[in-house]
Amino acid sequence: KQWYQRRVAITAGGTASVSAMRAILKAEPDAEILMVGAEPHGPYMRPPLSKELWFNEDKAEASQMIFNDWSGNKRSLFYPDKLVDISELAPGAPALLKGVKVTKLDPTNQKVTLSTGEVVKYGKCLLAPGGEPKTLSSLKPTEKNACLSTKVHMFRNIAQYQQLSGELNDSAKVLVIGGGFVGSELAYAMTQTGAAVYQSFPEGGNMGRVLPKYLSNWTTKQLENAGVNIRPESKVVATECTDNGVQVHLSTGEELTVDHILVAVGLEPSTELGDSAGLEVHHEMGGYVVNAELEARSNLFVAGDAACFYDPVLGRRRVEHHDHAVVSGKLAGRNMAGAAQPYHHQSMFWSDLGPNVGYEAIGLVDSSLPTVGIWAHKDTVESDIRTDPGAHEKYEQGIVFYMDQNKVVGVLTWNIFGKIPIARQVIAAGEEHQDFGLLAKQFDIHTKH
Known about the structure:
Blueprint: E1 3-11, H1 15-27, E2 33-37, H2 59-63, E3 66-68, E4 74-76, E5 84-85, E6 95-98, E7 102-106, E8 111-114, E9 119-127, E10 131-133, H3 148-151, E11 152-154, H4 158-167, E12 173-177, H5 181-190, E13 196-200, H6 213-225, E14 228-231, E15 236-242, E16 245-250, E17 255-258, E18 260-263, E19 267-269, H7 274-277, E20 288-289, E21 295-297, E22 300-302, E23 307-311, E24 315-317, H8 322-336, E25 348-353, E26 357-363, E27 371-375, E28 384-386, E29 398-404, E30 407-414, H9 420-429, H10 436-440
Parallel strand pairs: 1-2, 1-9, 2-6, 5-6, 9-22, 11-18, 12-13, 12-18, 13-14, 20-23
Antiparallel strand pairs: 3-4, 7-8, 8-9, 10-19, 15-16, 16-17, 21-22, 23-24, 25-26, 26-30, 27-28, 27-29, 29-30
Helix pairs in contact: 1-8
């Protein structure tokens, strides 16, 4: 076996890993860092895979993972950080092993075994394995339905994006399963390919578990106007491979025949190393249980989707959002360099339905909670303040407060950006509110964003 001696080993090469690496190098510029990633690429950001990449009309650029953000700036999916080949290991020059998995973790002896048979001896180690997309039993390939192995896409990485973008055209039919963030983003994005797009989910409207009902219904209408054929309150109960494609049977009795199925029904955190390593996995939320410093065992830290951490405001949580990957990776990196700081950050998340609808949110954003919505037309000076706006309101710009006994526990800003720090302060204050018009003034909802 080949042995590598590293001060720091980082397993998996995503956003949390990059954030941790940057934090370590800031504290210790000469740190010896080895990053291990299963994909054949360097580290990259995942959100544009379901959003901006599909809107780049320059297909040559898109194939190189170049996209335009909603402000018109050209960007690369890949992080710019320089990572050298493993053969060039040197202090202060982080190295990357691509296309390699960690197969065994030994926290007691501080060793990581790789799929190549090589062993890494570490001083500190970060686990940031992310997760694998969940699927449905009706979508699993069988001998009878072997076509599902190529027709069903668990949309999570570059390879899946490249495969799908290369096969879609204006004669294709696509079914997106799932009505949450990623499912709704993908359904909207698929309209850019010219394909006929269908979307199925069990809720009554898009993002129905997050948005208040009126806003969920309005969002569904926007997707329908964009060309998505939505099938709410439906589940896929069976599939069948035919000469014309995949025949999908819905719980409503409807049958659809499509060429491709995109699955966006959640994420299962990757914790397969837990048993052999003796790590605790949370029995309800999933993910490795970590302490306030994101440490699972001595010198072994966890960040990103696979970290089940304690939130001082909201209790133990596991979060699957980009901002959490950035923040938890940064904190883990700082603590690996000796900072010993607890996690106290309220992470935020965002979603975009094309270039015209975007929102940011923080805290407990759950449609089962009472909400207060304050909305401002972009072409008027004053807003019409209502706790339950009517169905014909134009929800172009506004804010939704999620309440628990007159206290704000969550905030969602709709087409208003950069106000999360204010929302974080409102939630942390824990004060009771009666005048929501006054509260909304802090968010400057009348200014075009």
